[in-house]
Design a protein that fits this description.
nine-stranded mixed β-sheet; 293 residues; alpha/beta; binds S-adenosylmethionine; 2 domains; Rossmann fold
Length: 293
């Protein structure tokens, strides 16, 4: 008996099952880009699964298993992005250094809401490692991820250190500190999941490290953000997820099924009515500042 269920459309496949078991049956060296955002071992509840291992050692051993499986699936010129908690990342970093080249240690910095830590410096970022198999030959589409270069260019300064003085570049490849707001209830992309990643974060990764028709894999798909972005950007995708509730989100987001066991798959119903009775402004009409509140 198979350990997982498969749902697919022409270019997108969803596996409902355990990541390690599923990764083990996929063809070796077949994937161009992997984005892995596993449970962080911090006690979050993902539907029927609680993200807590008996010890840090157990968690790291588990991570090494799926990392090995991911590395086996990656093409020789492929890229692997890994997210983890700030506490676990040093262990994964040391392990991955022995198997791949780590090109960048990225910080995803985000806005914070709700109660802040009072007795220590609260966490305002999540680390991401960008690794490649071959440091001399990998995909990096610098031209499509350029951002505005603020210093110099905005002030229209001239760089007199150059042989022929010239204005500063107005565009640059982003550095390794990325600011993107977290997914909020009022945003159109919001799904019911505790750690949904924003599409803009994945858009930068998919644009930089893959090309059209490439195969993108997410072994811990959650709300299937990676696969939805891959679809939007004309890539193929594979998403693996253990929890049925989230598989249903993926089936809907990727347009694979409209019904699941007779249930119509619908986006989350949202109420825009405030408790004081005033309607809220839809997110696309908010200023950037308000959206990041
Ligand atoms: C951090 S979340 C991923 C969120 C995702 N990046 C998104 O944007 O929605 C981790 C996901 O891994 C799933 N998960 C936990 N254990 C798993 C396993 N052994 N195999 C596959 N998925 C698993 C959880 O249900 C959860 O949805």
């Amino acid at each position: 008996m198979k350990d997982f269920k498969v749902y697919d459309s022409e270019h997108h496949t969803i596996y409902h099952g355990d990541a390690i078991k599923t990764l083990g049956v996929l063809p070796r060296e077949s994937v161009d880009l992997i984005f892995a955002d596993p449970p962080y071992n911090i006690g979050k509840k993902y539907a029927n699964f609680v993200d807590k291992w008996p010890s840090d050692e157990d968690y790291i051993e588990w991570c090494k298993k799926w990392l090995d499986a991911c590395i086996a699936l990656l093409k020789p010129h492929g890229s692997l992005y890994v997210m983890a908690s700030t506490q676990s990342m040093p262990f994964l970093d040391i392990y991955l250094r022995s198997r791949l080249t780590i090109l960048s240690r990225i910080i995803w910095r985000y806005d914070s809401s709700g109660v802040q830590a009072q007795n220590y410096f609260g966490s305002m970022y999540e680390p991401i490692l960008h690794c490649v198999k071959d440091a001399k030959n990998y995909v990096f589409n610098a031209d499509v991820i350029m951002v505005e270069a603020k210093t110099g260019a905005q002030r229209k300064l001239i760089d007199y250190r150059k042989k022929v003085p010239a204005v500063y570049n107005s565009r640059k490849v982003p550095g390794n500190v990325w600011y993107f707001p977290r997914v909020r209830y009022r945003m159109a992309e919001y799904e019911e999941h505790p750690t949904q990643k924003p599409e803009v974060l994945l858009e930068r990764i998919v644009a930089a490290s893959s090309n059209e028709d490439d195969l993108v894999l997410d072994p811990f798909a959650g709300t299937f953000t990676t696969c939805a972005v891959a679809k939007k950007m004309k890539r193929r995708s594979i998403g693996i997820e253990l929890q049925e509730d989230y598989v249903k989100i993926g089936l809907r987001r990727l347009g694979i099924l409209s019904h699941y066991n007779g249930e119509k798959l619908c986006p989350p119903e949202k109420s825009y009515v405030r408790k004081n009775g005033k309607p809220q402004i839809p997110s696309n009409q908010l200023t950037l500042l308000e959206r990041n509140e």
